[in-house]
Design brief:
Helix content is 13%, strand content 40%. β6 and β7 form a beta hairpin. The protein has 2 domains: 121 residues, Immunoglobulin-like; 111 residues, Immunoglobulin-like. The chain is built from 3 helices and 21 strands. The strands form 5 sheets. Strands 3, 6, 7, 9, 10 and 11 form a 6-stranded mixed beta sheet that branches. Strands 12, 13, 15, 16, 18 and 19 form a 6-stranded antiparallel beta sheet that branches. The termini are far apart. It comes from Flavobacterium salmonis. InterPro entries: SusE.
């Protein structure tokens, strides 16, 4: 009888323990939000592919505080377009520390993901989000505003246009080259809208090493395409300059250049 009673008491206690929610034993409330220190309002940076492994900025903040039972505090660096009140925040990085060095590539990727305009100065809002444990009790820091100019993250399949007829001239410096991307959903049609200068030449390059020295080793010129039997727009002729570059003979202005390797046509619209 005693054994039966003991087993009954044990069963009741065990069932009670199992029925309890672990969260019932964690008592914590938000006490003080983290305080963002750097980058301070007024900070400005121009990002570039050449320096992508450099540190763009060190984000620092003072710790968030919570009262009651404690666990690890996780911090997320959030950015958003200025004036949007963080309606669609982008996470730049997360850590349990009180600072984080952001590489140029990391900050640039966050800006691109956030829809910031490439190669233009953008006003960026930044804040710190603290969370107790994995997802509990969020707090948000003060907001600072800085200026950032992101660079374009090119498609791996893109070709490039370089030459006096293009906006960047015969230069690869500072992203001067014009990206010539594949049409989305196609494997053999390249198209770009570019301002072409009348009477000047350019050439198509197949690669880009993203240095100021450029990638001159692999290219397609006018005779390459004419030799394959391409029909080439009448406003593009052989420059006859030793490299058989394309020479643009139309009026200076914005044009749509398309190279269709399936149809074997090069057109300007």
């Amino acid at each position: 009888m005693k054994n039966i009673l003991k087993r009954s008491i044990f069963l009741v206690l065990f069932t009670t323990i199992l029925s309890c929610n672990p969260d019932d034993y964690i008592v914590a409330t938000a006490s003080e939000a983290p305080k963002l220190v750097t980058p301070a309002t007024g900070f400005s940076i121009i990002l570039s592919k050449e320096t992508e492994n450099n540190v763009a900025t060190v984000v620092k903040w003072d710790a968030a505080k919570y009262t009651g039972s404690q666990t690890v505090i996780n911090y997320t660096i959030e950015i958003a377009k200025a004036g949007t009140n963080f309606a669609n925040p982008i996470s730049a990085a997360s850590t349990t520390e009180l600072s984080k060095s952001l590489k140029v590539s990391e900050l640039n990727q966050a800006l691109v993901n956030g829809g910031f305009i490439e190669k233009q100065v953008n006003d960026v809002e930044i804040r710190i989000k603290s969370v107790l444990g994995i997802s509990g009790i969020p707090q948000y820091s003060n907001v600072n505003i800085f200026k950032a100019t992101p660079y374009r993250v090119p498609l791996a399949s893109s070709h490039w246009l370089v030459g006096a007829a293009t906006p960047g001239g015969w230069s690869w410096e500072g992203d001067a080259e014009t990206e010539f991307p594949l049409v989305i959903g196609k494997t053999n049609i390249y198209k770009v809208t570019v301002v072409l200068k009348s009477g000047e030449a350019f050439r198509e390059f197949l690669g880009n090493n993203f240095t100021n020295d450029g990638n001159w080793d692999s290219s397609h010129n006018y005779t390459y395409y004419s030799g394959l039997g391409f029909t080439i727009d009448s406003e593009l002729v052989n420059a006859g300059d030793g490299d058989a570059n394309f020479k643009y003979t139309g009026p200076t202005g914005s044009r749509v250049l398309t190279i269709d390797n399936a149809a074997k046509t090069i057109t300007l619209d």
